[in-house]
Amino acid sequence: MATWTSDELTAIGDAEELDLASRRDDGTLRRPVTMWVVRVGDDLYVRSMNGRSGAWYRGTQTRHQGRISAGGVEADVTFADADPAGSAVHDQIDEVYRTKYRRYAANIIGGVVNPDSRAATIKLVPER
Questions:
Q1: Would 49 disulfide with which of 65, 83, 92, 111, CB 3.0-4.6 Å?
Q2: Tally of CB atoms within 10 A around 40
Q3: Sign (positive or negative) of CA dihedral 81, 5, 56, 64
Q4: Phi, psi of 38, rounded to the nearest 5 degrees
């Protein structure tokens, strides 16, 4: 499995927002959606505020491929499921969201730190 470089992890992990465009069945990219991104260790994650019913999340499930742009990095990626919803990585992801975006109100952060969003957590894996 491909991994992010240290510079990519820093640039994307430090970025305030990430643009994500998933691939359709025919290989074309959907319109990018802007969202928050977090880094946990050497991995990058995004979550759907609307859980698995969110339109952009459903789009990622078509081919599990797309393109992201954040922090000056543009990359083709594979969308992988995060570890099972009850795993410790989700607690770490929650904490990074709370810390990184702490200047936002708790109800806004709560949009990505809840059981439905946890179930719609995507690990971004670079395609190389």
A1: 111
A2: 19
A3: negative
A4: -130, 155
For the entire predicted model, the pTM comes to 0.95
State both tokens at 44: 């990058």
Counted residue by residue, the chain has a size of 128
- For 36-64, write each residue's pLDDT tens digit: 999 999 999 999 999 999 999 999 999 99
Pairing of strands 73-81, 121-126: antiparallel
Structure-token pair, residue 81: 């499921």
- Residue reference for tokens 């904490």: 95
Q: Which domains does the chain have, with CATH numbers?
A: 6-126 (2.30.110.10)
Pick from 67, 55, 69, 46: nearest CA to 120: 46
